[in-house]
Hints:
Blueprint: H1 14-32, E1 35-39, E2 42-47, E3 50-55
Antiparallel strand pairs: 1-2, 2-3
Amino acid sequence: MSHIVIHRDHSLTLDQAREAAETIALQLADRYEVSHYWQDDSLYFERVGVSGQIDLE
């Protein structure tokens, strides 16, 4: 399976970044039936055939 890493600088606070990531996760869930969960400052998402994570720093 492929492994892709993307690093993006931003000026959001941690709370703003968490809210943005949650919005993305909800859109993925709605469109592609992807489930997600948080562990500390990492958002994990998965469905059959794909998984990934967004780490907030």
